Amino acid sequence: MPTYKTGDEASLGELVRALKTEGRNLVKAEIALIRTKTTLRIRGAAIAAGLLAAAGLFGLIFYISALIALGIWLTHLFDSGALGALVVAILNILIAGVLFMIARNKLERTSKHADATADDMVEVVR
């Protein structure tokens, strides 16, 4: 940390230079803090995404197994393979529609949060 003359010893030019240097250091420190926080958030999100992908894979395996079992059961229940397959297909499209609506809502909320974070960063730089 630089030392500056104080009181009567410092000229106006020296004080302005000191203020400029301190201001620059403050902005650099704020940017470094934002960068560190963002890096930590991204790292945490990446780990969470990997875990979600693994959970999704196991969920998909379970879902396919359950659909096969449901199709076999419905085929025996209705004595018609076509009707059992139709019921399974309708169930699939309903689930896909619900998941689509949930994902769309979450993405809209995420983009609003990202805009607010960007606005905060602009305020810090100003």
TrEMBL record:
Listed A to Z, the keywords are:
Membrane, Transmembrane, Transmembrane helix
Q: Which domain of life is it from?
A: Bacteria
Which InterPro entries does the entry mention?
Phage_holin_3_6
State one Pfam family annotation.
Phage_holin_3_6
According to the record, the segments passing through the membrane are 45-74, 80-103
Q: Transmembrane helix: present as a keyword of the record? A: yes
Protein known as:
Phage holin family protein
Supply the source organism for this entry: Pacificimonas flava
Lineage, highest ranks first: Bacteria, Pseudomonadati, Pseudomonadota, Alphaproteobacteria, Sphingomonadales
